[in-house]
Design brief:
three-stranded antiparallel sheet, 3 strands
Amino acid sequence: FKNECQKDLEDGSAPALGIYSHLLHYKEARDTICTQLKSDSQFCIPTTMEALESKANAKFTNDGFKAMMAGKVTNEALAFMTVPKEAHCTPCSHALATQSAIMVEAITKDPKIKFEHSTALPKQKVAEICGASFDDHQLPSSVQIAAPGTGKAYATGSKDGGSSGAGDEESDETAAESEKHKYQHSGSHEI
């Protein structure tokens, strides 16, 4: 990828930087995408998007995302701005804000990636709307991260770091899977 897309990366192409960043920081990207509610294992991204679309009576579109990224205010964006804060400030959106911040921080600190992005303003806005707890780098207790290939959680929203009270055998198995996952996705990755 790096050889074939070197010019795009040097030019700061958003798609090339996005793909390269997610390849190098797969764990952080996966942990964002794989957040899910403990109660029903529903993933947070579609759950959050569907809830907001329902309240706004509007749909998220590629054109809408592009306009938002360019700082343009569209009718679609205005519809989402009128949604009550309770629809925005959910355990899933808290988890997504947490995991996204962790991912962006990792990418920003990576010397192999030319990515200059500050999360200060978005984090400030989220804190103004949903409260300072949204910037605590913790998963809410009702959210977990789906374990790779198992359908079981390997990181839960327990803020105290303790076990969830499940059987010791399952906890040991999940902990071992978590350690295996950390090992597989740590260290230097040459793409």
